[in-house]
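Q: What residues go here?
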């Protein structure tokens, strides 16, 4: 959560400012996963169910995947208030989801998705109603923001499902509220601009791609994918000169490349680049079959020109950008190298060393892979191997599901509180908080802190609301147990989704619409385990089976026992949870 400088003429109300701050946090790629835009809203989870149950009915997927997703949908739809339940009542769809019959779910979900084609419009209208309602309340009351908080996320998920990229949505919202050279007069004008996204028609984009081709293969290079057109360099120079100087300079600087162009219909530049990269995959596979020894490479940048305003054509990254904060501090990296070397000097068993080395290798291979499928598969190979057991008959994926949700939960509270503490720092609120403590984050949910942050809500409503929600989720032993149960369910469901996506790629050559986000998730899970095991070995190793060696299974067992012990503690509170630190992110 970073400060958001508002560039609107009329001052914003607390509810309006909350909308802006929440939007910025949801859409920013470096927001932690807990507060980033989620994969699904009620309508999109039904769309995912349609895809999954269709594959189940065709015998391409096991029924287990549909059952896990049906449970997730049941939880989301049960709390839903905006969907139109016309042909199928809400109670009926809840009954169908609970019974988990894939054929019934397929038909019911199709009906609901069809009858809610205007879901984005309804969400937008309800957001406006909620802002107006809160504006009329007077004094700030964080509990009144619960519905607005949920609706904002659902709305952007729906826009993303329409075909917008998250990068574009982030840029669009920030431009309207913070970066515009000609500030809008009021919040209503800004909201009206966002409303135009709902029914915007797709635009035709021309995407220019550059290939580095050896001389001996230059005259033979053909891209088989439909729609790609080879463009001679002289013709490209003329086209670039007619667009803008940025394109002209791009072509001049990269004059050693062979160029192709392709037209696609998309809602934004980033989505256009993504679509073209997907479309050219088959063609690239054929090229490398015929010219594998000649090292043909695709330039990492492309140039995209839109039909609506060609003069705004610009250079875009052709590489996939995964969400998440990726630490690149040289000091941390050197610490990591030292600790990996130290593993050789510690009493770590050989199997665990091999697992860590293999995980690092597949992490590198995944990061270097050009295609999302290869990224995901490499990351999955690594994390599955880490959770494999010496006994071959033990199910690796079952171990992963059972252990990972517990390992991640141990430091879950520390992760949330550290993020909130850092937000308080970045927002310049230290001087407002009497109980502020640089190392003990329990001050965050003290009643005095809540009261003092409520006093700053006219400028920082999101952090005031965030601290309120943390105080509710970690208030006492019952709320803590409920929060950990919810978190573990979410983690396990996501692991099943990742594994299902892996199987779809391997067995049906298809993939999830959310594969970009899913790939970011498995990469995070992998680096979390690598970092966690290294911290365990270096700081507090426990040889569980007393074989004289520290193993990765020791790490899994100790963390699982720690969580189980915490949840059975009759006097569990936030102070005990915060003793378990989040693994240092040596690599991400």
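A:
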């Amino acid at each position: 959560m970073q400060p958001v400088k508002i560039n609107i003429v009329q001052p914003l109300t607390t509810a309006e400012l909350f909308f802006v701050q929440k939007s910025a946090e949801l859409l920013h790629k470096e927001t932690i996963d807990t507060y980033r835009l989620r994969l699904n809203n009620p309508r999109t989870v039904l769309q995912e169910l349609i895809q999954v149950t269709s594959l189940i009915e065709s015998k391409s997927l096991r029924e287990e995947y549909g059952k896990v997703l049906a449970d997730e949908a049941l939880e989301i739809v049960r709390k839903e208030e905006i969907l139109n339940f016309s042909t199928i009542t809400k109670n009926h769809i809840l009954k169908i989801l609970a019974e988990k019959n894939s054929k019934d779910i397929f038909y019911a979900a199709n009906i609901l998705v069809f009858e809610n084609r205007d879901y984005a419009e309804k969400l937008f209208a309800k957001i406006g109603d909620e802002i107006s309602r809160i504006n009329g309340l007077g004094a700030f009351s964080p509990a009144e923001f619960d519905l607005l908080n949920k609706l904002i996320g659902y709305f952007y998920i729906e826009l993303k499902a329409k075909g917008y990229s998250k990068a574009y949505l982030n840029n669009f919202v920030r431009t309207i509220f913070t970066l515009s050279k000609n500030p809008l007069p009021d919040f209503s004008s800004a909201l009206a601009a966002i409303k135009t996204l709902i029914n915007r028609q797709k635009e035709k984009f021309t995407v220019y791609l550059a290939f580095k081709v050896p001389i001996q293969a230059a005259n033979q290079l053909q891209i088989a994918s439909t729609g790609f057109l080879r463009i001679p360099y002289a013709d490209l120079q003329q086209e670039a000169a007619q667009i803008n100087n940025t394109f002209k300079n791009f072509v001049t600087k990269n004059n050693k490349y062979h160029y192709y162009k392709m037209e696609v219909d998309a809602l934004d530049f980033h989505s256009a680049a993504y679509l073209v990269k997907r479309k050219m995959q088959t063609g690239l596979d054929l090229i490398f079959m015929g010219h594998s020894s000649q090292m043909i490479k695709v330039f990492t940048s492309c140039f995209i020109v839109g039909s609506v305003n060609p003069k705004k054509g610009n250079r875009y990254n052709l590489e996939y950008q995964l969400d998440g904060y990726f630490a690149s501090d040289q000091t941390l990296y050197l610490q990591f190298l030292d600790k990996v070397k130290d593993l050789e000097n510690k009493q770590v068993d050989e199997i665990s060393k091999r697992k860590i080395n293999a995980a690092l290798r597949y992490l590198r291979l995944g990061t270097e892979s050009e295609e999302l499928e290869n990224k995901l598969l490499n990351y999955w190979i690594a994390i599955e191997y880490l959770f494999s057991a010496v006994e071959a008959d033990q199910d690796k994926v079952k171990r992963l599901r059972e252990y990972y949700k517990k390992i991640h939960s141990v430091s879950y509270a520390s992760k949330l509180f550290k993020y909130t503490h850092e937000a308080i720092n970045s927002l310049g609120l230290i001087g407002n908080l009497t109980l502020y403590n640089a190392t003990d984050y329990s001050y965050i949910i003290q009643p005095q802190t809540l009261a003092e942050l409520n006093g700053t809500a006219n400028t920082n409503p999101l952090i005031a609301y965030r601290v309120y929600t943390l105080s509710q989720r970690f208030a006492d032993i019952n709320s803590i147990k409920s929060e950990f149960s919810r978190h573990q369910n979410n983690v396990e469901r996501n692991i099943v989704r990742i594994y299902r996506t892996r199987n779809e790629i391997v067995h049906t050559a298809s993939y999830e619409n959310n594969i970009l986000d899913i790939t970011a998730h498995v990469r995070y899970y992998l680096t979390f385990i690598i970092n966690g095991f290294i911290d365990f070995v270096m700081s507090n190793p426990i040889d569980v089976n007393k074989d004289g060696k520290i193993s990765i299974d020791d790490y899994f067992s100790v963390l699982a026992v720690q969580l189980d012990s915490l949840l059975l503690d009759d006097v569990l509170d936030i102070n005990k949870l915060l003793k378990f630190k989040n693994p240092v992110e040596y690599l991400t």
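A: Context that may help when evaluating the design: Strands lie at 203-212, 229-231, 258-266, 297-298, 301-306, 314-317. The two ends are 19 Å apart (CA to CA).
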